[in-house]
Amino acid sequence: MLLLAGSYIFYSSWSWNFLILLIISTLVTFFIGNKIKVSEGKAKTHWLRTGIFLILIQLLYFKYFNFFIENFNEILKMFGRADKLGLLKIIFPIGISFYSFRMIGYLLDIKNNKLKELPSILDYSVFIAFFPCIIAGPIDKALPFLNNLKIKREFSASQFTDGLRQILWGVFKKLVVADNIATMTSPLFESYDKLNGSTLFIGAVLYFIQLYSDFSGYTDMAIGLSKLLGIKIQPNFNYPLFAQNVADYWRRWHISLTSWLTEYVFTPLSIQFRDYDKYGLIMAIIINFLVVGFWHGAEWHYIFHGLVSGIMFIPIIWKGKMNKKVKSQNNIIPTKEELKNIPVTFIMFALLMVLFFSTDMKMAISYYKEIFSFSFFQLPNYQFKKEIAFLILFTLSIEWIGRNKEYGIKELFLHNNVVIRWGFYYILVFLVFLFYIAPKGFIYAQF
């Protein structure tokens, strides 16, 4: 009851009106989940479709309604019609994409008999509204989270300090690294049409690191806060900047969304298309990533981001290396394979990020044209802050050393003298105060 009250107060601090929407959605999907459980045959399928339809219709209204209107107006324009449909002034409910996927996953798990015992309305409400995760995930699945609530939670000093340590690392990545990089990338993107290719390329690389630091910083804080409450939630990142190929990257980036889509979208599609061999697998992958793009937002540049992400899998599928996993090395010095694969993968996804941060396709096309022009070989014509390069190098070095741990500083100096350990923590705190600027909000809160 305390967790639910706290979560609702947290959400209502943004909007009381949309708290009502969250509560109604929770009650309706809980009722439909019970109906799916007790129904048989076609009735079970009917209730599932009803539940998914109700969840998607509110998501489509709040997130995609104006997108469809804008594109319908463009079609009218193509046929010489001057009249236009007016756009609605729609406020986007924070976290709706994340809690909608939780609800859909819950209903599908009941239909597929993965939830043998249904939760109480109280436990289900906590699962949907759990405050550390509601703004930007992770998108936990119902069974492991609900099992957390069944277990008697007792205070653990080691878990509590581990949670604080992870929160500290998340705060550092968000407030020191991500927000300070944003002071360079935001004005750079605003004046991108006046900058040369080398500058725009550096901007794309910086944004890739900014997005990772912002989103993984949030995740570290969410997981750390959950540990303080005795609740374990799933990880969302596994050092994706050190990925060695496309498949390896998507196993490491936004893990909860990727695993959700793999289970509920890609796997059913791959079974449906299995008669088409590799072509069927490619179709399933591309549709899956189109959903990823559309989930991020009702803009064509997000949809193309998803499409290109799917196309990037084609060489791996064709070579039959789709399920080949990269072995993690414990060495501080990277191996020859890592030195060859990591930079290539990093640059590929940094360039892909142009489709992510662009305001529209016109900006993305212009941005790419300049990067792949002769001006790429010119010196940058933009002032970059040297201290940001130090902070990035410092952060990536720590993450490289701790890349086989749950988060970068989990065991760093943990077994050293207390002066060394606490000295390191104080350095991080000092850097937070030194580089603190007014927070710009979390990037993924807009999704």
TrEMBL record:
Subcellular location: Cell membrane
The keyword Kinase appears for this protein: no
Pfam families assigned: MBOAT (PF03062)
InterPro entries: Ac/AlaTfrase_AlgI/DltB (IPR024194), AlgI (IPR028362), MB_O-acyltransferase (IPR051085), MBOAT_fam (IPR004299)
Membrane spanning stretches: 14-34, 46-65, 85-108, 120-139, 279-296, 302-318, 339-358, 423-445
Membrane-topology descriptor: Multi-pass membrane protein
Domain of life according to the entry: Bacteria
Keywords noted in UniProt: Acyltransferase, Cell membrane, Membrane, Transferase, Transmembrane, Transmembrane helix
Family named by the database record: Belongs to the membrane-bound acyltransferase family.
UniProt-recorded name of the protein: MBOAT family protein
Lineage of source species: Bacteria, Pseudomonadati, Bacteroidota, Flavobacteriia, Flavobacteriales
